[in-house]
Amino acid sequence: DISIRDYQTSHRTIQLPGLVNIAAFVPGLVSRDSDDLQRATKASIAAGFSMIRVMPVSKGGSISDVKSLKVAQQNGKRGAYCDFNLSIAATSDNAHQISHAAGEVGSLFIPFNHLSDNISKVAQVEAHFDAWPTHKPIITDARTTDLASILLLASLHNRRIHVTAVTTKDDIKLIALGKEKGLKVTCDVSIYSLHLSQKDFPGCQFLPTEEDQAALWEYLETIDVFSVGSLPYQLAHFLKKPTDVTVGIADALPLILTSVADGKLTVEDVRVRLHDNPIRIFELHEQLGASLEVEIDRPYTLEATESWSPFTGKTLKATVQRVTFQDETVCLDGTMLSVSPRGTDMSTHGALPPTAVVSTPAVRPVTQPMS
Amino acid sequence: DISIRDYQTSHRTIQLPGLVNIAAFVPGLVSRDSDDLQRATKASIAAGFSMIRVMPVSKGGSISDVKSLKVAQQNGKRGAYCDFNLSIAATSDNAHQISHAAGEVGSLFIPFNHLSDNISKVAQVEAHFDAWPTHKPIITDARTTDLASILLLASLHNRRIHVTAVTTKDDIKLIALGKEKGLKVTCDVSIYSLHLSQKDFPGCQFLPTEEDQAALWEYLETIDVFSVGSLPYQLAHFLKKPTDVTVGIADALPLILTSVADGKLTVEDVRVRLHDNPIRIFELHEQLGASLEVEIDRPYTLEATESWSPFTGKTLKATVQRVTFQDETVCLDGTMLSVSPRGTDMSTHGALPPTAVVSTPAVRPVTQPMS
Ligand SMILES: [Zn+2]
Ligand SMILES: [Zn+2]
Ligand SMILES: [Zn+2]
Ligand SMILES: [Zn+2]
Ligand SMILES: [Zn+2]
Ligand SMILES: [Zn+2]
Ligand SMILES: [Zn+2]
Ligand SMILES: [Zn+2]
After folding, report:
1. Interface mutation vs chain A, best among B118, B150, B152, most A CBs within 10 Å
2. Which ligand is nearest to the CA of B66?
3. From the CA of B10, which ligand is nearest?
4. Does A152 lie at the interface with B, CB-CB under 8 angstroms?
5. In angstroms, rounded to a whole number, what is the distance separating the alpha carbons of residues A220 and A226?
6. A315-325 vs A291-301, strand pairing mode
7. What's the confidence (pLDDT) of residue A51?
8. pLDDT above 90 for A345
9. In this structure, is the dihedral angle defined by the CA atoms of residues A231, A236, A240 and A243, taken in order, positive or negative?
């Protein structure tokens, strides 16, 4: 490939621990017999994510009760290529039901901007705060005044809350203010939001404006986590491109590490936001035997693949060279090796109150290879 | 009057200190050469209110800068029959200007539901919090998620905030929750909201629903202040009745004291919410020589007056018999005596930081009788 050689410069290879995508969007999550979850794990491990937290909202509905949770769990039993955990979504009237599912999911998601049946009233959110176990994480995609509302409730209940997919200057500033004043709030920003704006795709309201994007970079210290999220899927849908569970996953690391190559971030900034903080905030298990090797500083032009990307044809400066999962190399130079799916549904990890937490190996169930 | 004698029962006469209407709506407040402010003070003193806090939003615009403040002050110089103070309204871009007017007004009003140019963004409200002197009161009419937003900002800035004209179950519950958790929040409910609902006037969205009204009564302990507010004016407008600055003022005390006669409130409940709490919350001067005598328990049918009332023809059980202002009787059995306007613009009272407050007589300027 001539174009690669032309741009070749000195480069460095870096080791990272297995990374976490804290917001994986799986369109067919609650559709019976969907292989979307399996495909999401396969694309994720190839991209360097050894753990994904699956958003409970999907194209075909949400995980919002025991029944829909069962469907997602069943889809998970097809076999996963990385570890994953499931969450449950709050609806306007499922505050009671979620308390029954709490033990089987990793967190409660309170949606304000996803699909139907969003939470609209403070009183409804209040009911969910009261119903949800105090030690378990709560995540929301609330914006502007909705964000302020839920931060108030979190503050009044002395609860931790994680705000996902922040895109605006106002919201990141409010979160920064909250942190400064002692609120237990954390947040993530989609990697796409750091690299694409409404200037690139006019009319795309879910992308930050140029000004918003500049503010996100300015408030880097306020951003606890980088995520993939549903933004790549939304963008594909908006542009009438093929929407697929894999959209955006492979772009994540090359994009964020290109920012490292460009001097906008350090490797440490990335490791903290894709490994350390996700594990701490969401009380995830430590994945021994999961690691990756990335190469930074060698520019190349992104070529089209089966999975649509808005970055095709653009110059990137980082690649994932090797991914190791459970001490076995599963992906080399972007090519998935022939391995069986050995990922585990880790949803119940951390389900017990902190005082009763058992060590990780003891709670890890036997993995189910796909039959 | 035969109908009065028919219903006559034992009754009691009660002494009250001069009362405070913390939210007087004056339509012509910032209209040049309007006598609305004077007429509001006249109707107020006759109704037992020796002090009114004038809302800075009006039919013809808001007090939102030094210029509009000057117009209102000029209107105040026509002579007032009770004491009053003025406030300033936040707009989306006057955070800086209000800091210049802070010394000349009693409080900052942050409107979300009045007229044009409401505050819509958390960042705008944030700017006002930062620009407003920390010791001076802030009032808002925010509802639902807007209310939650502003409570969050008040909490993060450790500021007191007063919520005016609460009408819904959700809002009063949120305020109760806030108080329980230590937020410095106070609130008032319009006396009309306690006695009229959407059942009485279908489609009247600014009135509470029946369920909301029941909740307001249930949360009586959460209600710090009873107010007149703009609700009577809004109702008159909605029903296409004559809208006048006096609407609702004369109804206030007979209505709330009828609830005393009906055993739903004690006299103490009323005194605390129309005198003690308003003075404490808004750091008002103590009005020595202001008092009133009310009669409770003698039922009568409210007759029509020049000022429209939705209660005309209804049975009430309390009347204001005598109002004393500056140690002089100014109103007897509902008839205003021929007195000169001796009320004072008290807007600058309390403008100095707490440590420098001078005793009330020393800062009370010489009153200006109307020429
Ligand atoms: Zn190399
Ligand atoms: Zn149950
Ligand atoms: Zn609660
Ligand atoms: Zn690790
Ligand atoms: Zn009598
Ligand atoms: Zn200035
Ligand atoms: Zn501030
Ligand atoms: Zn007093």
Report:
1. B152
2. 6
3. 5
4. yes
5. 10
6. antiparallel
7. 98
8. yes
9. negative
The fraction of chain B above a pLDDT of 90, given in percent, is: 78
- Give residue A115's pLDDT: 52
> Tell me: the pLDDT tens digits for B224-272?
999 999 999 999 999 999 999 999 999 999 999 999 999 999 999 999 9
Is B177 in contact with A170 (Cβ distance < 8 A)? no
For residues B337 and B331, is the Cβ–Cβ distance under 8 A?
yes
Provide the ipTM.
0.74
Task: Reply yes or no on whether the pLDDT at A219 is more than 80.
Answer: yes
Distance B97 CA to ligand 4 centre (A): 53
3-state secondary structure labels for all residues of B168-215 = CHHHHHHHHHHHHCCCCEEEEEEHHHHHCCCCCCCCCCCCCCHHHHHH
Facing residue for A152 by CB, picked from B126, B151, B157:
B151
Residue B228 and residue B21 in contact, taking contact as beta carbons nearer than 8 Å: yes
Q: Does B155 touch chain A (CB under 8 A)?
A: yes
Q: What is the pTM of this model?
A: 0.83
Q: Which residue of B has its CA nearest to A148?
A: B149
Q: What does the block give as tokens for A80?
A: 């996963």
Q: What is the pLDDT of residues B321-340, one digit of tens each?
A: 999 999 999 999 989 999 99
Q: What is the pLDDT of residue A99?
A: 87
Which residues are close to ligand 7, an ion, with C-beta < 5 A? B 130
Give the mean pLDDT of A288-296: 96
B155/A155 Cβ within 8 A:
yes
Strand-by-strand arrangement of the A83-86 sheet? A19-24, A49-54, A83-86
Mean pLDDT of the region A136-159: 91
B172 to chain A: closest CA residue: A123
With an 8 Å Cβ cutoff, are A122 and B181 in contact? no
Say whether pLDDT at B7 is over 60. no
Q: What is the pLDDT of residues B114-150, one digit of tens each?
A: 654 556 677 788 889 989 999 899 999 999 888 998 9
DSSP type of residue B354: G
- Per CB-CB distance under 8 Å, the chain A contacts of B169 are 123
pLDDT at A312 over 50: yes
Question: Hey, is the C-beta of A142 within 8 angstroms of any chain B C-beta?
Answer: no
Q: Which residues pair with B12 in a beta bridge?
A: B296
Task: Name the nearest CA neighbour of B12 among B334, B294, B320.
Answer: B294
Size of interface A-B (CB pairs under 8 A): 67
Q: What is the pLDDT confidence band of residue A5, given thresholds at 50, 70 and 90?
A: very low
Query: Is A153 within 8 Å of B155 when comparing Cβ atoms?
Result: no
Query: Among candidates A40, A58, A57, A61, which has minimal Cα distance to A49?
Result: A40
Residue B366 Cα distances to A190, B18, B64, B326, B341, angstroms: 64, 20, 27, 13, 12
Q: Which ligand minimizes its atom distance to the CA of A11?
A: 1
Among candidates B126, B145, B169 on the partner chain, residue whose Cβ is nearest the Cβ of A145: B145
Residue A272 has pLDDT above 90, yes or no: yes
**Residue A153's closest chain B neighbor by CA?**
B148
Angle at A145 between CA A144 and CA A147, to 5 degrees: 70
